[in-house]
Specification:
This protein is of the alpha/beta class. Helix content is 25%, strand content 27%.
């Protein structure tokens, strides 16, 4: 499988963000990628602030207007599309991710399980988490999702290992506390934490983070990696800039 990991710029302008996503889908298709993966909350950014009146407006029903546009792009460009977005489900908000196939059909949806995407004192009748990890079997192989802190939730990596999927799609939204794109901290310490934890899943992990400014959301710093089941880095895209990481990714299990 040829995969494209799209590090996109996320801003306060949702329409601009969506146009950037659609442009990256087309670019990935021109690169002959079979699948393109976007970060967590790629439509709006992870800018929920605990005010339900504000945060519910960030949510998108699934299916809904944005996923319909993604589905059309998946069909026109004949490519699988994976993307994280805040999901409005009734009166509740979830941090979710979707996978669309080449026909634009929704074949997998994951609701983030770990609560780190929201403030601890949020109303849990509004801010919700899922409790399941599903999978999708496709001609490319089998896929599952985890989102950001899910990978570090107790027992979650082992749950993925037991599923024996070929690929784990792993969208994240990660920043450093000071809002900088700290290459030294990333390369010297933080990157290794992800590599070690991803190896516990026993599968190939596709990880991608979005890019934003300090003023927008504390400076989510971008970057992307393809990680092997043995704990190696098969390919990576540097933090601090936008672009596509396009790589031929072997199946974890042949």
């Amino acid at each position: 499988m040829k995969a494209a990991l799209a590090v996109t710029q996320v801003t306060a302008d949702v329409e601009r963000n969506v146009r950037g996503i659609l442009g990256a889908i087309a670019e990935a298709s021109r690169a002959r990628a079979d699948l393109v993966l976007f970060p967590e909350a790629a439509v709006t950014g992870l800018i929920n602030n605990g005010d339900a009146a504000h945060d519910l407006r960030l949510g998108e029903p699934i299916p809904g207007p944005v996923t319909s546009r993604l589905a059309q792009a998946a069909r026109e460009d004949s490519i699988y599309v994976g993307l994280g977005l805040l999901e409005l489900d009734g009166d509740s908000l979830y941090d979710s991710a979707v996978l669309l196939d080449r026909r634009g059909q929704l074949i997998l949806k994951h609701k983030r399980i770990s609560p780190g995407w929201r403030d601890r004192d949020c109303d849990t009748r509004v801010y919700r988490e899922g409790d399941a990890v599903g999978h999708a079997d496709t001609p490319l192989g089998s896929f599952a999702f985890l989102i950001c802190g899910d990978l570090f939730e107790k027992g979650m990596a082992e749950r993925v290992r037991d599923m024996q999927v070929d690929y784990l799609l792993y969208p994240v939204a990660r920043c450093f506390g000071d809002g900088t794109y700290d290459h030294q901290l990333w390369d010297g310490e933080v990157k290794g934490e992800y590599v070690r934890q991803a190896a516990l899943t026993g599968t190939t992990v596709l990880m991608v983070n979005y890019l934003a400014t300090k003023e927008f959301d504390w400076g989510t710093f971008g970057g992307a990696m393809v990680l092997s089941p043995s704990g190696g880095i098969l390919a990576e895209f540097p933090i601090g800039r936008t672009g596509l990481l396009v790589v031929d990714v072997p199946r974890a299990r042949l």
